Amino acid sequence: MSLTEILVRPAPGNPRQAIVQAGSLTFRAALGRSGRTSRKREGDGSTPIAAMKLLHGYYRGDRTRIAACGLPMAPIHESLLWCDAPDDANYNRPVRTPFAKSHEKMMRADHLYDICLVMDWNIASRRRHRGSAIFFHLAKPGYPPTEGCVAISRRDMQRLLPLIGPRTTVCVL
Description:
The chain is mainly beta. It contains one helix and 14 strands. Helix content is 4%, strand content 37%. The strands form three sheets. Strands 1, 2, 3, 6, 7, 11, 12, 13 and 14 form a nine-stranded mixed beta sheet that branches. A three-stranded antiparallel beta sheet has the order 9-8-10, with no helix packed on it. A hairpin with a 2-residue loop joins strand 1 (5-11) and strand 2. It starts with a strand and ends with a strand.
């Protein structure tokens, strides 16, 4: 039985951090550098205030072993990118190298995407300039702000993975 809802509430006194409630578990999280917004735009650095279904995930097989998870999980390869060019037909979709338009590399030098879950922000009903690459991924030490994602520690992500599935929604309040 997987969780149906993960709540993400702003942390008291810090709009760029949050408290994540997943069933009986509570985690610290990082949010976007501009805090949260109900008017998400490409590049604004804000985490969207929304209920976002978890769709699938990626992991770095060369760096981490993932716990059993109810979502489809695919290994990240050097050729995997994510399009963030609003004027491209692939906007807010995974793409492969070579790709000339603006994109984000999924195989990062840091560890943020060692485990990366794709949330349904602007994917099922995609609109240009509404934001791309809104993920639930690993946080940097000290929980500095993200570019608009929700980020938790590796330890907390490993605890969360067995509890999530295709019916799990992340609700940023």
